[in-house]
Amino acid sequence: MFRKRFGQHFLSDAGILDRIVDLARVERADLVVEIGPGRGVLTRRLAQTARAVVAVEIDRDLILPLRASMPGNVQVVEADALDIDYRTVAAPGYRLVANLPYNIATPLLERFVAARSSIASVTIMVQKEVADRLMAAPGGRDYGPLSVWLQHYAVIDAGFPVPPGAFRPPPKVWSRMIRLEWKPGVRDADEFVRFVRNAFSARRKKLVNNLAAGGLGRDAARALLEASGVDADARPEELSPEQYLRVFSYNERRWTARRSK
Prior knowledge:
Strand content: 15-25%
Number of helices: 10
Distance between the termini: 65 Å
CATH topology of the largest domain: Rossmann fold
CATH class of the largest domain: Alpha Beta
Helix content: 40-55%
Shape: elongated
Structural class: alpha/beta
Number of domains: 2
Radius of gyration: 21 Å
């Protein structure tokens, strides 16, 4: 039964299952963690290819049928995906595959990023509009803090679109499968994330004004941008993730130098 409160839309298009497994690059030696197996159609397909699958499901009505019908290399775990510790849910180096509920996609992505040292890759289905924001290039209307944040940590494979008719019941929107590969050597940067959100606080204003309003002051904000090699008249959506990181790093060094005096 479809449970609206869990945002459930069950994948029913068999042709898309092989495309998901191919996009995830699942091989025989792999351990896979699947979030939201639903009725288990993708779970069974993953189990045919992977060494083992850990399937995390919140809906108690689905737990027993899943456990009764899954092959021996599938472990079904009853849990809320938002409560899972993705650093310990499975042995490090697992591949994560998920059809993310539209209403919790962003907080789940935050948890995946935080546990990226344990996750080899992430292959997820998200609402098309969310995928557009995640993958957006500088200068477009979809480009914003979410784009900068995820692209700071990961290289995003655009994957493929999934139409509403691939689900039962069909959602009202298109979806997209995307794949994330973590960039090596990127440290956690909560302060950087806050810095970027502040930079986008008013999209119609120039970046220098947003940084000034965030506490830098206009002269210091202009000097910071110029020292970072960024046009002082640029708008927030014009900077790449790399440019934002450079501006942030200059700002960190400036405050470190001031505190050491």
